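ARCHIVE RECORD
Type: protein–small molecule complex
Small molecule: S-adenosylmethionine
Source of inputs: curated submission
Record status: active
Notes field left blank by submitter.
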Amino acid sequence: MQKGVLYGVGTGPGDPGLVTRRAWQLICDAKIIAYLAPDTGDSFARSIVADAIAANAEEISLRVPMRPGRAPAQSIYDDGADQIAARLEAGQDVVMLCEGDPLFYGSFMYILARLKTVFSVRVVPGVTSMTACAAAHLHPLVARNDMMTILPAPLDDDALRQAIIAADAVAIMKLGRHMPRLRALLTDLGLAESTLYVSHASLERQFSCALHEAPDDAPYFSMLLLYKGQDPWIRT
Ligand SMILES: C[S@@+](CC[C@H](N)C(=O)[O-])C[C@H]1O[C@@H](n2cnc3c(N)ncnc32)[C@H](O)[C@@H]1O
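STRUCTURE (tokenized, with ligand):
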């Protein structure tokens, strides 16, 4: 029997209008949908494309407890990969939803790593949260020969400091409880004035402001953007 295909599909940063046509069509046609969800509550990726999911589609919800500073237990991905593999082995296609882009800090990669040597896998890229945050600010991410660095906030202060100093443009993700530490670090580097904060980019509750107005306890879906290069609209 021919095996099924696993599709890793980006659902974009939140606004259903930012889901690609290919992703939307695959989700509409899917008989089996998989996604990661927190231990309680809904999957964000699923909520973005809820209108496209057929009422009779089978849904595989992989519950991943998110604990600050700790990677989820690998056994959860093992179990999820096993559930998906069983459908693929039986010749059924599976569409796995992933918020933003599946391969940009996306948990889809843990399933991909487990299944790609055995099954056909295709990835449909999505609009990333980083580009959605830049759009929220009407601010360039990078220009000319600038070097851009993407940093997860849980890195220690020394690693953050060195990377920020070396970069022309920086995106800092996964802010959460790290905001007070990041604010102090960026202020110490003299960069607080040029740092922008965005939460829930592309959603109705999108919020953006300068760093000094940003909350200390940032929501999970938030990011800092910092541009240290020369403003690209200045002609030289
Ligand atoms: C595990 S990463 C997932 C990234 C996602 N795969 C992407 O392509 O953007 C989660 C982080 O992405 C950022 N993020 C995701 N969606 C966001 C949004 N709508 N607005 C602001 N930040 C967002 C936050 O920094 C969050 O902590």
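CURATOR ANNOTATION: The beta strands are 5-10, 32-37, 58-63, 94-98, 120-124, 148-152, 169-173, 195-199, 207-210, 222-227.
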